[in-house]
Design goal:
Oligomer: single chain
InterPro entries: UDP-glycosyltransf_plant, UDP_glucos_trans, UDP_glycos_trans_CS
Structural class: alpha/beta
Enzyme class: transferase
CATH topology of the largest domain: Rossmann fold
Distance between the termini: 46 Å
CATH class of the largest domain: Alpha Beta
Strand order of the largest sheet: 3-2-1-4-5-6-7
Helix content: 25-40%
Radius of gyration: 22 Å
CATH architecture of the largest domain: 3-Layer(aba) Sandwich
Number of helices: 14
Protein name: Glycosyltransferase
EC number: 2.4.1.-
Largest sheet: 7 strands, parallel
Family: Belongs to the UDP-glycosyltransferase family.
Order of helices and strands: EHEHEHHEHEHHEHEEEHEHEHHEHEHE
Number of domains: 2
Strand content: 15-25%
Length: 400
């Protein structure tokens, strides 16, 4: 008799991968007899060596801790067609989506291969992996979305198809005095919509439209939130107000689901867990005295902005832990060259700057952290709420 399996297909960004791994762990906690298979697609060209190293370390640690319960399947590398590159005028999100579209045949082949030895009960896909849903339907595999943001944004995306039908033109071309109403959302102006949705002729807009329609065809939508956190949005979705004339998929709220206390990215060294430098530094700081700054996997500032943040931190006189990513147009591994002259030396007694990554859940739950400057990524929001850490919000991209 074939063993039961669930296949998870995240987009190749570390935050989305972590979300899928935590979903897999949750499934295993209630169904330990099942096996979880996670598909790894070609990373976008914008992902530099540091981000790739963090992802590889995370995968290695999860594999070591989960044994055979969670297995990773790296899909064959796909090549972008001419015109798609980091240096082209094509938006980064369009490049990411094109890679996922090209991966559809690889996903199908891998799913069929897994099915030879397992009874695949479901395929769970990321919102950005929407091209896999028609393929799953062809194979008669139940397909669910793992929506990595809140219910309020889900309401917007479910309603996007209705907006497309009633609005005469692109959001960017609508009268600026016009207001748009979406169930459970305050009225907003057309230009308040995310940049990737402004032009209905844009390829990225078309992909989001496909996702909006495919959401209604899914066996269900798993969302990392909970009714008490977003009660109005929850009611609007389940009562069908976001899909007038359409089908509302079953909604499964599983939040707050956040990375385990040890999020799997500190690997054993000589049989012992290495304690990240930032945690040892926090151990020496007074209670709730440190402001933590971290802006997600795509939170990359230009060099000029990094310098302004540094100046502000220095003038504040407060203790800080700051995660810095190199600007795309100025890749630099030496923090001394990225930040103002002498900044690191002048603030070394009360501040720590870290390149690229820290174990965020552990940092937020540390007693020395008293505040969080965040880009408002949904994982970060939930981790901060769960840890009880006040947030200073600095939304940067996407739905934030």
């Amino acid at each position: 008799m074939k063993k039961e399996a669930i296949v998870l297909y995240p987009s190749p960004l570390i935050g989305h991968l972590i979300s899928m791994v935590e979903l897999g762990r949750l499934i295993l906690s209630v169904r330990p007899s099942i096996t979880v298979h996670i598909l790894l697609s070609t990373p976008p060209p914008s992902e530099g060596p540091a981000a790739a190293a963090v992802t590889a370390s995370f995968i290695s640690a999860v594999s070591a801790s989960s044994g055979s319960s969670i297995s990773f399947h790296r899909l064959p590398h796909v090549t972008l067609p001419p015109g798609f590159s980091v240096r082209s005028a094509v938006p980064e999100i369009a490049i990411d989506l094109e890679l996922l579209r090209l991966d559809t045949s690889n996903v199908r082949n891998t799913l069929e291969s897994i099915s030879e030895g397992h009874h695949v009960r479901a395929l769970v896909i990321d919102f950005f992996c929407t091209y896999a849903l028609p393929m799953a339907r062809e194979l008669s595999v139940p397909c669910y979305y793992n929506f990595t943001c809140g219910i309020t944004l889900l309401a917007c995306f479910l309603y996007l198809d209705s907006l497309h039908k009633v609005l005469p033109k692109s959001f960017k071309d609508l009268d600026r005095g016009l207001t748009i109403d979406v169930p459970d959302n305050p009225s907003f102006h057309p230009l308040d919509m995310p940049a990737n949705l402004q032009d209905r002729e844009d390829q990225t807009y078309q992909c989001f439209m496909d996702s909006s329609r495919n959401l209604q065809l899914a066996h269900g939508v798993i969302v990392n939130s909970f009714e008490e956190h977003e009660p109005r949005a929850f009611r609007e979705v389940i009562e069908g107000h976001c899909t007038p004339g359409g089908t509302t998929p079953p909604l499964y709220c599983i939040g707050p689901l956040i990375a385990a206390g040890d999020d799997g990215r500190s690997e054993p060294i000589n049989g012992r867990k290495e304690v990240p430098e930032c945690l040892m530094w926090l151990d020496d700081q007074p209670s709730k005295s440190v402001i933590f700054l971290c802006f997600g996997s795509k939170g990359i500032f230009p060099k000029e902005q990094l310098k302004e943040i540094a100046i502000g931190l220095e003038r504040s006189g407060h203790r800080f832990l700051w995660v810095v990513r190199s600007p795309r147009d100025h890749p630099e591994s030496d923090l001394h060259l990225l930040l103002p002259d002498g900044f690191l030396d002048r603030t070394k007694e009360r501040g720590l700057v870290v390149k690229s990554w820290v174990p965020q859940a552990l940092v937020l739950n540390h007693g020395s952290v008293g505040g969080f400057v965040t880009h408002c990524g949904w994982n970060s929001i939930l981790e901060s709420i769960t840890a009880g850490v006040p947030m200073i919000t600095w939304p940067l991209y996407a739905e934030q």
